Amino acid sequence: MYLEDNSWLLRMFIDYPYLPTPPTVIDAVLNLINLNENDVFADLGSGEGDVLIRAAEKFSCFCVGFEINRQLLLEAKSKIKRTAFNGKVDVACADLFAVDLSPFDAIYVYPFPTIAAKLSEKIQEECRKGVKVLTYDYQLLHFKPAKTAHVHSGMHAHRIYLYKT
Ligand SMILES: C[S@@+](CC[C@H](N)C(=O)[O-])C[C@H]1O[C@@H](n2cnc3c(N)ncnc32)[C@H](O)[C@@H]1O
Questions:
Q1: 73 three-class SS
Q2: Dist CA 43 CA 34 (whole Å)
């Protein structure tokens, strides 16, 4: 699962770059789900960890992130340490396509069209039934959203989608 070389650097620019979910959107995303403290929530491509920290704060559940960019991972680790949720939130340096999705109760991903097809297949194959999958701006293929919400962040209007596997 862990990448030992610098291939992440190349892939980061080609496929799926860092673009953080704005705080208002994070709250809107988390308002679409209701998790309890025994649930495990994952952010695939977790960046600086803001979604995870907010989810732990809101639901007191275990929140794990997978991030390919080591700099962002370090930033996330340092942010997590500064919160009261250290122990409930963790991040690993991993390629999201190498992560086994079967343990998770809810998944957030801010996907780009470049990875939508491959990611949709992975979710379809690995997630248990009834898992909540949330996406921002981009939709999963092969799934019909259970809920869609509109949210404004600055001058931009966004859509968020909730899927149930
Ligand atoms: C659009 S950003 C979303 C960041 C964060 N989830 C948020 O919403 O604020 C996508 C993130 O995925 C990471 N990423 C790109 N390819 C990845 C891969 N194959 N495995 C894990 N992370 C990846 C990027 O470095 C980036 O941090």
A1: helix
A2: 16
Mutating to test ligand 1, I would choose from 18, 26, 54, 93 the residue with most ligand atoms within 8 A of its C-beta, which is 18
- Enter the pTM of the model: 0.92
Neighbours of 18 (CB within 10 A): 14
Domain 7-164 has CATH 3.40.30.10: no
Compute the distance from residue 17 Cα to the ligand 1 centre, in Å: 6
Residue type, 78: S
Q: What is the pLDDT of residues 23-67, one digit of tens each?
A: 999 999 999 999 999 999 999 999 999 999 999 999 999 999 999
Domain boundaries, the chain: 7-164
Residues recorded for the chain:
165
DSSP symbols for 125-147: HHSPTT-EEEEESSPPSS---SE
164's tokens: 């149930």
Please state, in angstroms and rounded to a whole number, the distance separating the CA atoms of residues 9 and 12.
Answer: 5
Closest by CA position to 52, among listed 13, 92, 15: 92
